[in-house]
Each structure stands twice: as structure tokens, then as C-alpha cells.
Amino acid sequence: MMPGWLKTALGTVGQVLAKPTKGTRRMLDSASYIGIAMGEAFFEICQMGIAKPLSELKESKLQKIKSVDVADAARAHNESEAIRLEAEADAELTKAKAEKKLAEARSIDGEAACRRLKEERKLAEAQRDEVLARLEAAVTQLRIKGGDLYLPDGLDADEEEPDAS
Amino acid sequence: MWPEDFFDEPDPFEFVLDPGDAEKDEIQEVLTALSDLHAAHTGYSLCYRVQGSRVMAHAEVEL
After folding, report:
1. Residue B19: helix, strand or coil by DSSP?
2. Which tens digits make up the pLDDT trace of A102-130?
3. Is the dihedral of CA B47, A126, A156, B3 positive or negative?
4. What one-character DSSP code corresponds to residue A147?
5. Which residues from chain B sit within 8 angstroms of residue A63, using beta carbons?
6. Residue B16 φ/ψ, nearest 5 degrees
7. B14 touches chain A (CB under 8 A)
8. ipTM for the predicted complex
9. Contacts of B30 by beta carbon, 8 Å cutoff, 6+ apart
């Protein structure tokens, strides 16, 4: 029996293939996202010691932080991100058209699509591990220079209410 | 498995990056890795706005 998330994903892919939109890439690749809320991810990252929870940051330390360097780096990141997105948007439109043609040509076989989504998910998990390792290395370098990263104390927004009954 | 709001734009969040004596590219590496991690989880990378000592991160939505 097909799991619920897979049914949702296949339905979404079908819809998007039928009518490509600006957000096509994200929808098409939806199975390749981990689907874990960021609150949980922050919690995990802090548990692993990669970053510290924001609640541990003392107000006195916050006052001493030199935000000018951070602002410069943020600006540089935003600029390179904008360039990357522009290039990606062109490529994605081409990809969406190709996917649509492919789907029309062989009217997606359920089992093959299922296999493909599972493979994409595995790949996404591997990519996420790779990114986490990069974040850890970058924060380690930051700590060598006397800095640190403080992330929101996770789970609050996404935590399920305990059953009162 | 997926929450109902899976395809909604993720909420912005605030964090603090203490740069110490790090160089600009070292700080940027942290910001980029965090953005890529966010993309791996939600499908959206991040843009940043610095407000005082805090950094506001929001999902980029341009395509």
C-alpha cells in the first residue's frame, strides 16, 4: 500500500506537470525536501552542539557583538543568492517543459514514480547531512575566531500539544 | 507525514551570529550553510537582514 506522503507527492507532481507555474521546481522536487520543521532542526542542531540556543546568550554579550561585519556578509550572501535564483529560474522553466513532455509521452507508471520519489528522498537526506557538516565546519571556524552561532530555541511553534485527556 | 502547511512559505526567524574576529567570507560561509540547510528542510533558501545585533532570516520567494 502506498504511504500517504507519497500519494500527496504524486498528486502534487501530477497537478504541476499539468500546469507549470513559477514555483514549479519546488513543487516538482517536493519529495526531495526533508519535511522536518525548522524548529525541530534547530533543536537538533543545538543538541548536537553545532550551535547554541539563543536563550543561552546573555544580554551583556549581545551588546558587544560587532554587527557591521555580519551585515557585510549578509549583503554578500543576499546578492549571490539573487544571482543564483535568476539563473535557476531560467533552467527550471526548461526542466518543467521537459518533464511535462516526458509525462505525456509515457504517462507515468505508478511504481516507477514511487521508486523515483523514494530515491529522491534518500538523496535529500544525504544532501542534508552534507549541508549539516558544512554548517558545523563553518561554526567551528567561527569559534576559533572567538565567535559563535545562536539559533532559536526550537520546537515551540511546531510542538504538538500534549493530549489533555 | 507532511504537515498541511508544507507548501506554505516558512515563517521568518531571528538568530544571533557573533562574528568574533572572523573574516567576512568566514561569516558568509555560516550564513550560506544555514540557508542551504533551510532549503534542504523546506525548499526555500534564506535572505538575511541585520537589525542591531540580531539577524532576521526570511525565506526567499523569488523564482
Report:
1. coil
2. 666 666 667 777 777 788 778 878 888 99
3. positive
4. -
5. 53
6. -125, 130
7. yes
8. 0.87
9. A135, A138, A139, A142, A149, B17
